[in-house]
Amino acid sequence: MPRSVYQQFVKGYTEKQWGVAATSLESALARRFEVRHDGDIRLSKHKYQGLPIDGYHFWMQKMLAGIPVFLEHDYLSERDVYRARKMLIFTGPIDEYFGYKYGRLRYRGQKRLHRYFTDVQQYQPGVQVNYPDIDTGPHIRIIEWKHLMPAGSRIFKGTLTTNETPYDPLDPNDFEYPFPDCTNRAVYNLYKAEVVKQDRLLICGRLGEYRYLDMDQAIGRALHLSKDL
Ligand SMILES: Cc1cc2nc3c(=O)[nH]c(=O)nc-3n(C[C@H](O)[C@H](O)[C@H](O)COP(=O)(O)OP(=O)(O)OC[C@H]3O[C@@H](n4cnc5c(N)ncnc54)[C@H](O)[C@@H]3O)c2cc1C
């Protein structure tokens, strides 16, 4: 990409997001940025784009109808309670599954500050405004949720925003983004080699395969893996 685009938009954002020099990260990360001249303001150019009509919650609920679901159970602290008859599919952090025996993988998370403005109808011009410049503060972006709603349903008073600030979480519940560098990739490969040795175990998903997946990719990957099984 042109150096001026990199300097203005990418370098600061990347360094706030990961907390390290951009040059120390995997170069594949650069593929997430596109420089375009066609005036299309959409992030991705997929033919079909959108959110499930009633939200992901209802979509998931419909998909799980008739399947027993137990919430608020940490499988890793109850391994003896649940026994897999055919195969165990684990979608949590792969390093946590193996008790961090090869060391901890690094993850980034976001601290979120929600603010409700009673007397502001619109806080910013779009759903997400990025703050790549370190001088604007530690937060990396501000989300204004009402932009995601169909225009006709934005009839409530005020607006809700969320400031997001990246940090290094230690609690697995806060792991959001696998760290894209060679050191962590090498540690991940050690854990992956352990999984391959066991034929009744599948560790998958964003935390299991230690790679960032967008929703469409996560769904595509799940369909692909289930077809294989
Ligand atoms: C901050 C953030 C913003 C995102 N924004 C977007 C976006 O705008 N657009 C987009 O397309 N994608 C976005 N994504 C990506 C999308 O959310 C993920 O791709 C998707 O959720 C991955 O699905 P998954 O099933 O692999 O993992 P997850 O959704 O993380 O599911 C893993 C599941 O495993 C459970 N689990 C973990 N450990 C245990 C345990 N020990 N015992 C029992 N259960 C356990 C967790 O509770 C969780 O339910 C975003 C992700 C993050 C983190």
List each distinct ligand once: flavin-adenine dinucleotide
Q: Mean of residue pLDDT?
A: 93
Number of strands: 7
Q: Helix coverage percent of residues?
A: 25-40%
Rough outline: globular
Largest sheet: 5 strands, antiparallel
SS field, number of helical segments: 6
Q: What spatial order of strands do you see in the largest sheet?
A: 3-4-5-2-6
List descriptors.
229 residues, alpha+beta, binds flavin-adenine dinucleotide, two-stranded parallel ribbon
Polypeptide structure, described:
This protein has helices at residues 3-18, 56-63, 94-97, 182-196, 205-208, 215-228; strands at residues 88-90, 107-117, 128-130, 141-144, 159-167, 177-178, 201-203. The strands form two sheets. It has a five-stranded antiparallel β-sheet. The protein is built from six helices and seven strands, in the order ααβαβββββαβαα. 27% of the residues lie in helices and 15% in strands. The mean pLDDT is 93. It is globular. 11% of the residues are buried. The protein is of the alpha+beta class and 229 residues long. Flavin-adenine dinucleotide binds next to helix 5 and helix 6.
What order do the helices and strands come in, and which of them pair?
Layout: H1 3-18, H2 56-63, E1 88-90, H3 94-97, E2 107-117, E3 128-130, E4 141-144, E5 159-167, E6 177-178, H4 182-196, E7 201-203, H5 205-208, H6 215-228
Parallel strand pairs: 1-7
Antiparallel strand pairs: 2-5, 2-6, 3-4, 4-5
The protein binds flavin-adenine dinucleotide (FAD).
